[in-house]
Design a protein that fits this description.
Distance between the termini of chain B: 15 Å
Radius of gyration of chain A: 24 Å
Oligomer: heterodimer
Strand order of the largest sheet of chain A: 2-1-3-4-5
CATH topology of the largest domain in chain B: Glutaredoxin
Structural class of chain B: alpha+beta
Distance between the termini of chain A: 72 Å
Number of strands of chain B: 5
CATH superfamily of the largest domain in chain B: Glutaredoxin
CATH architecture of the largest domain in chain B: 3-Layer(aba) Sandwich
Largest interface: A-B, 59 and 42 residues
Largest sheet of chain A: 5 strands, mixed
Radius of gyration of chain B: 18 Å
Largest sheet of chain B: 5 strands, mixed
Strand content of chain B: 5-15%
Shape of chain B: elongated
Shape of chain A: globular
Number of strands of chain A: 16
Helix content of chain A: 40-55%
């Protein structure tokens, strides 16, 4: 006996897909289906991260997902005509989704479910292995959870790369009447969008990760500090938190463990510095986002003066798979001291922009050319910035560097949050260096002098160098200024702004109107 | 978004409702900004009273965050991303085009009160650069022609 299945169509609700017209596509599919008398189920999934194919629509045929893209509203009647609901051929057909070459080549651990499931359906999450990590963590107990995380080699994905297990252990071992877990979802780096994709595409994995961290560390309250530029994340997170609470995954007795944990979303107000963990705490406490002195570290004295686990979205969202599959499974991926996978975000002037989760060790060249396909403009790649606005600019000759914390650091760069921004040969690197200083001036919290004053003086000095005024003296001044900012700033904003500035100067001195002899060193 | 209609009673009500939340000041300011589109100056003493803070403390927080406006915005808010990824895809030229067309700079509102133009530093839509938002909607791979069409569709 054959049961006729209701056709299922997936249209992403991811804000990147929405920015390319996914809402119109969803509306057109619903309308066309109704007009043809087809009773179909429309699922609004996350994005697979292949943004050059967005809006990418998927159907299920013979138990397999078949993809079409990029789809616009005008192509919808033709898709119905061609029989796309049954996975039939069409000019936009990309074949089975899991056979798309650049998806198949990835190692998707943190992003295993993103684009696959309905993000706000707890049942869908559970059907795809959700909450297996928390269930095992509850059986193991706190000490053993720390050991698993330690074994996995997981380091903070926000940028600093600090071992996650050490933070958990510190908070666990610090006695207090109240402890917190705070998720840093203030993803402000240009070229990064992995946190957004998790929160829009698989919010339960973040909630599960925070719950694992909370039970391990003994925290009962959690906050997700979300940047205001991500309104869609706020909606999916709030829906997912409510669903988790309604089914006992959050609340007074989490999964019948007798342990309490609940969390809420707090939306920021457009300040880049609030991605710095202590500024974020100040903001959560209702104040200006001024950076705090450390020590004490937040794991000892954090939110409202209490021990606080603070991690980035990706770090927390990786805990469930580590606990479900074991630390050794995760550690098996990666190279050197960079274990596991990194969701790499490829953006800027690139033919195939998107998110690619890869084990550490893939080279910058592979990412830019094999995955990215070179520039969108078709012109030569001139510079690549890795790690956000505080990351170094690399020239063509250095693209063979492996994406790994230590390898990048050895070349005066940083991995940051895993964002890569590609520029073609029309870029003026002196302008990019000036912009780095300008951005620092705009976003400085103002607490320390090197950052507050240095960034503004930096803009002026770069202008004088580019304007040809007393170049030798001003170049020396810029270097001294960068040295002061690097060594005397309170946090990474002032401390790392010299990185894009000095790398631009080192590799592209001609853009500043200088000869090659002016290039100098980054550090 | 109601940009001008507000009264002290509704602001006091928000402050009273949220004053016991941990870190209440940000929660209150966020709510007022979301509901009114700006934070009218007379709300400062009302909030200060409710939270037992000085006016200076409240003012200091409002002035720190880019999102909090002390003037009402235009009927529509256009935000252009100025960050690196969008710059790599022509955001500088796009900004010049929009500024010329509207006759205003970042942070300004057209004389007819129709559009406020703001700079934003990353919308997380870097894979679809250059990116903008118009009110609550996000747009990617935006060209001058696309933005012109969008501007023409507004009242």
């Amino acid at each position: 006996m054959k049961t006729s299945m209701k056709p299922v169509v997936f249209v992403p609700r991811d804000s990147g897909a929405l920015s390319l017209g996914a809402e119109d596509v969803a509306r057109a599919i619903a309308g066309e289906g109704a007009g043809r008398g087809v009773d179909l189920t429309l699922v609004r999934n996350g994005s697979r991260g292949l943004y050059w194919l967005e809006p990418m629509v998927e159907v299920v045929a013979d138990g397999r997902r078949i993809a079409y893209g990029p789809v616009d509203a005008e192509s919808v009647p033709g898709l119905f005509e061609a029989g796309f609901l049954d996975g039939r051929p069409h000019d936009l057909c990309l074949g089975p989704t899991d056979e798309i070459a650049l998806l198949k080549k990835q190692e998707r651990l943190t992003f295993a479910r993103v684009g696959v499931i309905d993000p706000v359906s707890l049942d869908d999450y559970l059907a795809h292995g959700g909450y297996e990590g928390l269930a095992r963590a509850a059986r193991l107990g706190a000490e053993q959870v720390v050991t698993e995380v330690m074994d996995s080699g997981l380091r903070g994905r926000g940028g600093a790369g600090f071992p996650c297990a050490i933070k958990l252990r510190t908070v666990m071992q610090t006695a207090a009447d109240q402890k917190y877990v705070v998720c840093n979802a203030d993803e402000g780096d240009s070229g990064t969008f992995a946190d957004r994709m998790i929160m829009e595409g698989d919010p339960f994995v973040l909630i599960e990760g925070m719950t694992i961290a909370a039970l391990c560390a003994g925290a009962t309250r959690g906050y997700i500090y979300l940047r205001s530029e991500y309104p869609h994340c706020a909606r999916t997170l709030k829906a997912a938190i409510a669903a988790a609470r309604a089914r006992g995954y959050l609340g007074k007795n989490v999964l019948d463990t007798g342990r309490q944990f609940d969390l809420e979303v707090r939306v920021g107000a457009g300040s880049y510095i609030c991605g710095e963990e202590t500024a974020m705490l100040e903001s959560l406490e209702g104040r200006r986002g001024m950076v705090r002195y450390k020590p004490p570290v937040p794991a000892v004295c954090g939110l409202f003066g209490k021990p606080t686990v603070i991690n980035n979205v990706l770090t927390l969202a990786t805990l469930p798979i580590i606990l479900a599959r074991g630390g050794a499974f995760y550690k098996n991926y990666g190279v050197g001291r960079s274990r596991g996978t990194q969701p790499i975000q490829l953006a800027g002037n690139v033919k195939r922009p998107g998110l690619f989760e890869k084990a550490f060790g893939v080279t910058l060249r592979e990412m830019v050319y094999e995955y990215g396909g070179g520039t969108a403009s078709g012109r030569p790649v001139r510079a690549v910035q890795v790690g956000g606005p505080l990351g170094a600019y690399f020239p063509q000759s250095m693209l063979d560097v492996a994406l790994d914390y230590e390898e990048l650091a050895a070349r005066d760069g940083l991995l940051g949050h895993g964002g890569i921004v590609v520029f073609d040969d029309t870029v003026n690197m002196a302008e990019m260096a000036r912009y780095a200083m300008e951005f620092c001036a705009l976003e400085s919290c103002g607490k320390c002098t090197p950052c507050r004053i240095g960034s503004t003086r930096g803009v002026e000095v770069i202008d004088r160098i580019v304007g040809g005024q007393n170049q030798a003296a001003n170049l020396l001044l810029l270097r001294e200024l960068c040295d002061t900012m690097t060594n005397a700033s309170l946090c990474a904003l002032g401390g790392l702004t010299p990185l894009p500035v000095l790398s631009a100067l080192k590799y592209f001195p001609q853009d500043f109107g200088l000869g090659d002899e002016a290039a100098g060193e980054v550090r | 978004m109601n940009t001008n209609g507000w009264d002290k009673a509704s602001i006091s009500a928000i402050a009273q409702e949220l004053k016991d939340q941990p870190g209440a000041l940000m929660v209150i300011l966020r709510r007022i900004q979301d509901e009114l589109g700006w934070i009218p100056q007379p709300s400062v003493p009302l909030i200060a009273d409710a939270l037992n803070l000085s006016r200076a403390e409240v003012h200091g927080v409002i002035s720190f965050y880019h999102d909090f406006r002390d003037h009402p915005p235009g009927r529509h808010v256009l935000r252009l991303c100025r960050a690196e990824s969008c710059q790599a895809m022509g955001a500088v030229a796009l900004a010049r085009h929009v500024k010329d067309r509207l006759g205003i700079d970042f942070g300004q509102t057209t004389a007819d009160g129709r559009i406020t133009l703001d700079a934003v530093y990353c919308l997380g839509n870097c894979a679809c650069s250059p990116a903008i938002t118009m009110d609550d909607d996000i747009y990617g791979r935006v060209s001058p022609a696309k933005i012109d069409k969008l501007l023409e569709s507004l009242e």
